[in-house]
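quick one
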Amino acid sequence: MKINGTHYRTIWVDPDNRRRIKVIDQRLLPHQFIINELVTVEETAGAISDMVVRGAGLIGATAAYGMYLAALAAHPKRLTEDMARAAALLTATRPTARNLAWAVERVQAAVAGMTDPAVIQQRTFATATAVADEDAGFCRRIGEHGAQLIKHIAARKSGGRVNILTHCNAGWLAFVDYGSATAPIYAARDEGIDIHVWVDETRPWNQGARLTCWELAHENIAHTLITDNAGGHLMQQGLVDMVIVGSDRTTHTGDVANKIGTYLKALAAKDNMVPFYVALPSSTIDWEIDRGKDIPIEERSGTEITQITGPDDAGILHTVHLCAPGTAALNYGFDITPARLVTGLITERGVVAPEKQAIARLFGR
Ligand code: MRU
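structure w/ MRU:
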C-alpha cells in the first residue's frame, strides 16, 4: 500500500542490514507513523503480544522472521534447543490466529535435522521471506476472487453504489500487503465499481476506527465509521449490501474465529438476508480442529476496556479512564461465527462454501 506516495509492506528486512526487521508501530496509527526495528526473538515476541504488529497474516510473517532472528543468535552447540525455545516463545504470544503457529512450524520444518548454523540462518531467512511473499500474493488473489462478488452485486444494483460492512481491520495492516477483507474492495474499485464501506469501530482496540479508516482514506475509498452496535440497524434499513470480514482461524469445517463482535454481525446479516463473506488465505485454515468452539480464544487485560489512549490537539498522547476505578472487565479478543451463518469463504483459490468437503476439495486435502 502507498503511504504519501511511497509503497510500504507492513514488514520488511532492513536493506542495509539483514539482521534487522522493520515494522510499522500500529499502536500509534493513525496519529503517528513510526517504524520500529526488531533484532531479537524476544523483541519480536513482545511486538506481537503488545500489538505493535497485529492481524493474523502479519503476526504469522513476523513470527517467521522472529525464528530467523533466533537462528542468528542461537548458540552453535545448542541450536535445536534455542530454536525450540524461540518457537515456544513466539507461539505463546497470541493463541487464536492459526497463521502464527503455522508460520513458526513452517520455519521449524525447513531446518529440521540441520546442524550447520550458517545453513540454518540462510534457510530460516529464505522461509520467512517466502511466508511474507506468499501472504501478499494470497491476498492479491483473494482480491481478484472477491471482486467478482462485488461486481455481481453492482450489476444487480444497475451500477449503483455497493455498501460493504467490515469489522476490525482485515486490511493491508493485518497482512503483509493488500489485506484480506479489503483486497476485494480495492480490486473492485480498480474495475470502476462505486463502493462505500461501513467501518465498525471495533472496541476496545479500535482497529476499525484507527486502522481501517486510515487505510481506506489512503486508497480514496468512501467510508463511514459506525459504532460496533450500529450494523444490525443499518442492515434493517437496507443500507448494507454485503459483509466482508477477515478471520484469525477458520476450521476445515467452515467455523470462523474473528475479532469479537463478528458473530453478532453474522446473526444480523442472516436475519436481514445480507450475504456474509469471510476473506482468508489458506494459512488461516485449521485442518485439525473440527469445531469452532474448540478454537482457543485469547483473553486480554481488562484495562484495554476500562482505559483509552489518544492524542490531544497538540498530538500528545494521553490515557484516560472510561469507568469507575476497580470496575471488573472481561476482554475476549475473538468470537466464533458458525459455518451456517457464513455465505462463503473468499480464499486465494476461489470462493468456497463453508463446508468440509468443499474446502477439502478446493485445497486438495
Ligand atoms: O487483535 P487483532 O487486531 O490482531 O485482530 C485482528 C482481526 O481480528 C482481524 O479481523 C483478523 O486478524 C483477520 S484479518 C488478518
